[in-house]
Specification:
The chain is globular, with a radius of gyration of 22 Å. 48% of the residues lie in helices and 14% in strands. A hairpin with a 5-residue loop joins strand 6 and strand 7 (209-222). By secondary structure, it is an alpha+beta fold. The protein has a 4-stranded mixed beta sheet with strand order 1-4-5-8. The longest helix is centred in the C-terminal third of the chain and has 29 residues, at 279-307. Helix 10 runs antiparallel to helix 12.
Length: 397
């Protein structure tokens, strides 16, 4: 199997680099390089820049505004964006609910929702996890009872990322409590301004307000907002999770983090030496880099198989496991490289324009990113669950 980049793919890489040089604001790249916060407005600005170029939705079919790129081109694009310090595209609308609407939605749903996702006029969040229904998602209890042309929703979701910004939520609800767990679930689209929806913040260990609890008290949702068939939402959920897990693997993101680690470890200290001169620390960097190279090769093999007409299966679970483990290892090494200057984790240091701590402009971000990476092996389906999937699909256990 040929996994080398073709001449056309190398030309495409140069086109992406030229676009980023011309259109990525220097301020954004500096924020990313220093691990600073990005506001919703900054993220929307960058996504609209990509949309004007026609590059915001590489995974969509061309007829809905996609690029027509191959999976290899998508890989190259992600790699170059992370290397240049471009903001990460928020995935809930573009990479998660949109593919579900495209595959399972009605013509009316596609016409209504897809253009507003592309224009960034609608911000989406994901209503999957519940208290007691995270990794075992099929045990969810949020109910939706049909009354004429509406569903009445009652229940709770938790760990809902960016729900405090969201205009819409895609939500799994139980529409048949008597059916077997996975057969009684439906996939609904909820307007977050609907009466009866309450969003409460969850402040995480790193002090950030990123996730939330969401409560539903007799929330009326039009039946027209049901995606797919009633009680067949698990099919939509599995399709969505495959997209999510593949992106969580984050090969391009990890390569950018590794470059940051090498930069910090190469900085000269007061004794004239750098941490990378330490053979033990250098060996730790080499170990994680070899793992990343192996994961990237596996990813490229998967992309090459898709290019040749194959269909990925358990590879998304494997890449999710290794990608998140590698990210955690790199952020831990960054914290070690920064040393004691990573300890005074000050929230205000993450705001752009704040004065950096003494050792490096990445000091405060080191602890933040280390803490943030802890959850990567949990969301999108815990890594333990991914190992079960691999066992069933490949080892037939």
């Amino acid at each position: 199997m040929d996994i080398d980049f073709t001449a056309d793919e190398r030309v495409f890489r140069e086109d992406v680099r030229a676009f980023l040089r011309d259109h990525l604001p220097t301020e954004f790249a500096e924020r990313i390089s220093q691990g600073k916060r990005l506001s919703k407005e900054h993220q929307v600005q960058w996504m609209r820049t990509l949309n004007r170029r026609g590059w915001l939705a590489p995974g969509w079919p061309v007829e809905f505004g996609g690029t027509g790129w191959s999976d290899v081109q998508k890989h190259i694009f992600d790699e170059e964006c992370f290397a240049a310090g471009a903001p990460k595209v928020v995935s809930f609308g573009l990479k998660m609910v949109a593919p579900v609407i495209i595959k399972f939605g009605t013509a009316q749903q596609k016409a209504r929702f897809l253009p507003r996702i592309l224009s960034c006029d609608d911000w989406w969040c994901q209503g999957y996890s519940e208290p007691g229904a995270g990794s075992d998602l099929s045990s969810l209890k949020t109910r939706a009872v049909r009354e004429d042309d509406h569903y009445v929703v009652n229940g709770q979701k938790t760990w809902t990322t960016l729900a405090h910004y969201a205009d819409w939520m895609f939500c799994l609800v139980r529409t048949d409590p008597e059916a077997r767990q996975q057969r009684g679930i439906s996939f609904l689209l909820l307007d977050m301004k609907t009466p009866g929806i309450t969003v409460r913040p969850i402040i995480t260990l790193d002090g950030e307000h990123e996730v939330n609890e969401v409560f539903f008290d007799n929330v009326r949702v039009p039946v027209a907002n049901l995606v797919g068939e009633e009680n067949q939402g698990w099919t939509c959920a599995k399709y969505l999770l495959t997209h999510e897990r593949t992106s969580i693997g984050g090969i391009a993101h990890n390569k950018a983090l590794l470059n940051r680690l090498k930069h910090i470890a190469s900085e000269e200290r007061r004794d004239g030496r750098s941490l990378i001169d330490d053979p033990l620390f250098r060996a730790q960097i080499a170990e994680v880099e070899m793992q990343l190279m192996a994961a990237e090769m596996s990813s490229l093999r998967t992309l090459a198989a898709v290019r040749d007409g194959g269909v990925p299966g358990a590879e998304s679970s494997f890449l999710k496991i290794k990608g998140t483990e590698i990210r955690q290892a790199i952020t831990w090494l960054i914290s070690k490289a920064v040393g004691p200057y990573a300890m005074p984790f000050i929230q205000d240091e993450l705001d752009y324009g704040s004065e950096p701590l003494l050792y490096t402009d990445y000091s405060s971000a080191a602890t933040y990113q280390y803490l943030d990476a802890r959850k990567a092996s949990i969301y999108g389906g815990a890594n333990e669950i991914q190992k079960n999937i691999i066992a069933k699909m490949i080892l037939e256990l």
